[in-house]
Amino acid sequence: MLFGSSGIRQEFGPGLVDLALRIGAAIAAGAPGIAVGRDTRTTSELLEHCVVSGMFSAGASVYSCGIAPTPTVAHATRQTDAGCMITASHNPESYNGVKLFNPDGSSFTLRQQAAIEDAIERTHWKNWDEQGHVRPIDAVDAHREAILDKVSLSRPITAVLDCGNGAGSVITPDLLTGAGATVIGLNCNVMGRFARPSEPLEANLPYIGEIVRRRDAACAVIHDGDADRMMAFDERGRYIDGDHLLMLFAKYLDRKRVVTTVDASMAIEEVAEVRRTPVGDSFVSEELLSWGDFGGEASGSWIFPEHSYCPDGIYAAGLLCEIASEWSIAEELDRMPRYTLLRESHRAGAPREVMAAMGADEPTHGIRVEDEDGWYLIRASGTEPKVRITAEGRTPAKAKEMLEAGHTALERAKRILE
Prior knowledge:
Elements: E1 8-11, H1 14-28, E2 33-38, H2 44-57, E3 61-67, H3 70-77, E4 82-86, E5 95-101, H4 110-120, E6 133-136, H5 139-148, E7 157-162, H6 172-179, E8 181-186, H7 208-214, E9 219-223, E10 230-233, E11 239-240, H8 242-253, E12 257-261, E13 273-277, H9 281-288, E14 294-297, E15 301-303, H10 313-326, H11 329-334, E16 340-347, H12 351-357, E17 367-371, E18 374-380, E19 386-393, H13 396-417
Parallel strand pairs: 2-3, 2-4, 3-6, 7-8, 7-9, 12-13, 12-14
Antiparallel strand pairs: 1-5, 4-5, 9-10, 10-11, 14-15, 16-19, 17-18, 18-19
Helix pairs in contact: 1-2, 1-4, 3-5, 5-6, 6-10, 12-13
């Protein structure tokens, strides 16, 4: 199985290079026009060349976005038959991979993924007079202008922005400046290496809070490697967890039907009607196609259906600055419901086998156990060799109890495999 919860990701090596060529040809077999972009990793240009070569060999026309965020490529895809982004998103720099999109920005569905995996095993060669060609397009400008048409600040603010040396560096600084913010930029260049771990976790951002307070900023915006994610800090320099960002966006936009994942806090159910999906932005976007007016994951993926079915950290960054220009974000957060939610990751040599031993039908969907006052979820990561445990309780003691129950269940499964 090639696809995880968000595209295909692997450690960089000859196998991934060969796979990229075959993926390109497989996509082109069903899509004659394809938008292609890449993140800033040192390995992305090589993989882009391989994917594009595969597309050429199958006769496709390629619309090259160059270095661009995932949501920017997804935005460009509305003018084509499919989109392809070379990225491993928030994974460490040694990883890379491929994300595939439909023209509405939604990720390829499970059915489409299965078709691609089947097509990879076949040959899609065109004759010399049917080979494809490339056309560069300015996807960044088009995406930025589309967001500026929808986002505006009611007053000038100062915003801290950390792009983590990822693809957001080519668009978010200009976007926020164009919207009316004074931007304090950190790691906003595309040098090819990440100055900090790409995942926008609080532990990876110990310096942000002090900068926000010292510069009297209204907020801080943080991207991962391909800027499909956006996390944030309020004006007091406090990291905003993803569950409360989900509630903040839902309240500001007056969204009453929210799609989120099984590992999100139960607090969201106090402010909106909720449907839950397995973990992975592709599942959230697929559910939004038939129900809901806003969706997201606590990991930082925010989907605005009226804009795109692709998680758009760029749009979310602009929207957060708009909110900061109208509200005190800190005061809004303090009024929101809050329960104790604990998240842990455990490295595992065979996470799928561990989950199978626990009785999970699909390892990345996992096992969720709940009662009236709390729940825990154990699942295999779809992007890394890890097993993740999430637990929540109405009290800290209940959350700890549910986390310990999850540990016990995980250790029991490991013993079965010994």
